[in-house]
Design goal:
- The chain is mostly beta strands.
- The chain has a domain of 171 residues.
- It has 3 helices and 16 strands.
- Strands 1, 7, 8, 11, 12, 13 and 14 form a 7-stranded antiparallel β-sheet that branches. Strands 3, 4, 9, 15 and 16 form a 5-stranded mixed β-sheet that branches.
- Strand 7 and strand 8 form a beta hairpin.
Length: 256
């Protein structure tokens, strides 16, 4: 399936309409996801880049120089485990304002949903496809590391144990072993972000909040002095990044 234009995949019908006079005809709502970023509650934008001002859970002071990450497969589920999936992706880049909002390409039926979710990164099937937009953004992963695409590029500087500035590249990809001609994949490191229940009554804007500090915090305290660069071929590091990422996102304000 071509992925260059958003395609709505209806996995199962969420609602059926009968002929009973008492039936209420559902109407549609357009939904936009707005991605915001904070450091333990302090708003972060690209205006905060390149200044060492953030303290991580290990006590290291750091700056953010670049932060961009991939989201895909937006899903709405109901109480009958019926769902619809928007088979789309977006590269969120804090330095590109119009990338921070994602309006779904088709309307969603108004009603109660038990969960709204998306994938951080690509699942393995999606990761094997070719995407012109991501190629142009140089978001590719080298073939020797399994190919496909990054899930996240998070770059900055930190004050190391000698109080010297040192760079870090906190990059997330599919965990890989045996880099080279025949890489192997010990564990999936993409994950599903569950935002929780929502009742759609009208066109809606959903705020998706990323607490950047959580990448270094829970359940694994990250030590930048030990793990700062060359993380992509380190499958153990990729698994830790994936584990920490599950605490990063949450649903904020819903406006309708």
């Amino acid at each position: 399936m071509s992925r260059f234009a958003p395609v709505l995949i209806i996995a199962l019908l969420l609602y059926t309409c009968g002929t009973d006079e008492d039936d209420t005809v559902s109407t549609d709502a357009m939904v936009t996801l707005n991605f915001t970023h904070n450091w333990d509650g302090e708003t972060v934008t690209d205006a905060d880049f390149s200044t060492i001002k953030f303290a991580n859970a290990n006590g290291e002071m750091l700056s953010i120089e670049r932060l961009r990450y991939l989201v895909s497969d937006i899903r709405f589920s109901n109480s009958n485990n019926e769902f619809l999936t928007f088979d789309i992706h977006q590269l969120i880049d804090l330095s590109i304002e119009n990338s921070l909002s994602l309006t779904l390409p088709e309307a969603v039926l108004k009603g109660n949903y038990t969960n709204v979710s998306f994938n951080f990164g690509f699942d393995n099937e999606d990761n094997a496809e070719n995407y012109v937009d991501l190629n142009l953004a140089s978001f590719n992963v080298p073939d020797m590391l399994g190919g496909g695409y990054h899930y996240m590029q998070f770059d900055g500087k930190f004050l190391n144990s000698n109080s010297e500035e040192q760079g870090f590249n906190y990059h997330a990809i599919r965990a890989v072993d045996n880099p080279g001609m025949n890489p192997t994949f010990p564990q999936d490191t993409f994950f599903t972000v569950n935002l929780g229940a929502i009742s759609l009554t009208d066109d809606a804007s959903l705020t998706v909040e990323m607490n950047i500090a959580e990448w270094f915090k829970s359940p694994n305290t990250w030590d930048l002095n030990s793990l700062n660069t060359v993380l992509m071929p380190n499958s153990s590091a990729q698994i830790v990044i994936s584990e920490n990422g599950r605490n990063v996102f949450s649903l904020g304000t819903v406006t309708q």
